[in-house]
Amino acid sequence: MSFDNHDDGGHTRRKVLECMTWAGTGVLWTLSGGVPRSLGLIDAAKAADKAAEQQASGLTFLQISDSHVGFDKPANPNALGTLEEAVNRIKAMPVKPAFMIHTGDISHLSKAAEFDDADRIISQTRLDVHYVPGEHDFLDEDVKLYRERYGKGTRGAGWYSFDANGVHFVGLVNVVDLKAGGLGNLGAEQLAWLEQDLKGRSKSQPVVMFAHIPLWTVYPQWGWGTEDGGRALDMLKGFGSVTVLNGHIHQVMQKVEGNVTFHTARSTAFPQPAPGTAPSPGPMKVEDARLRSLLGIASIDFRVGDERLAIIDTPLAG
Amino acid sequence: MIKPASSGRSIRLALAVAMLGSAPLHAETIKVTIDNFTFTPAQVTVKIGDTVTWTNHDDIPHTVVSAGKYRSKTLDTDDSFSFTFASSGDYKYFCSLHPHMTGMVKVE
Fold first, then answer.
1. Among B59, B73, B99, whose Cβ lies nearest the Cβ of A73?
2. Nearest-Cα residue of chain B relative to residue A183
3. ipTM of the complex
4. Which end of chain A has fewer CB atoms at under 10 Å, N or C?
5. What is the CATH number of the domain that holds A213?
């Protein structure tokens, strides 16, 4: 179910991220390099790049998404159980990742007990987790539980940025103030903040931007895209390495455009159909034996000097 | 023995008298279902005083929101929301979680 879409037009691109996707468990990203090699940069910039490259080496982090704790419908009557299976896999990793990002829909209905259960399981990874909310995390009447738990040090509805090993990470919120007939939404306030956040940064610094709903247009008929996502991406023009990580669509999709790699992670709760292959994007019921085969392992390698991405999906079972 | 014809006439007469009044004699409840991320029917036409009841049949929660007019709580599977329309007009609405889902209530 991977979408391997290359729009690179044969340009030499650097590949800074190495990614191992565990569909259904998480996505492991390893930074294995980090600077453009063919942009004709001046010497000083080259030196800065070298420093950035050295700094950026050896970073490994995980992406987990769409836990939907509390979901108990036929597509997976035990979403908490499959989250636990994912966490057990993370615990068994031979190399401990630096941290994890969670790209939203932690809970199914924003109930306190659902957030409690999610935290109880996810904390077993003993990893720092950087969250962004999904639309399912803002369903409590006062819309306060997510922000109370995960919103410390964030702005607006929960956006923020941080640096790790020379890589700039930006967590965005595109699930609030949605407009009738529209898609995901970042809004003017968040875009203004993003512009300031990126201002003055070295274009050689790798950027990882993550949000719940895809920031690129995957399938607008099902709302799979972000109305003003293009404005955020415009601000990243000129940066040598940009990686955009999303969830929401419960399946792996990948696209490369110039220096931007887009990737969506699978859910730990239930699969959703490929665009247009079902009457709606709702949870996809498959035979029990097949569920974990859809939650299989995929590895995605970005290697310096490679023209194309290598995507290898390996199912956990079946 | 009372003739059926005569009885039918008197009922029609009673209805006609009642309908002359300004208040609706019998407000209706119109059902809209949510299946497969779609409001069905997408447009309903009702009279003032009528109630529309939305019921979510999906495995995913939805909402019914008409900006500035009415707003349901989150509707989990098989939950319903009702709104009684007191004035005429076009009430566009959508699901605030899945904004590509839109519908319309026309109140005459």
1. B59
2. B99
3. 0.79
4. C
5. 3.60.21.10
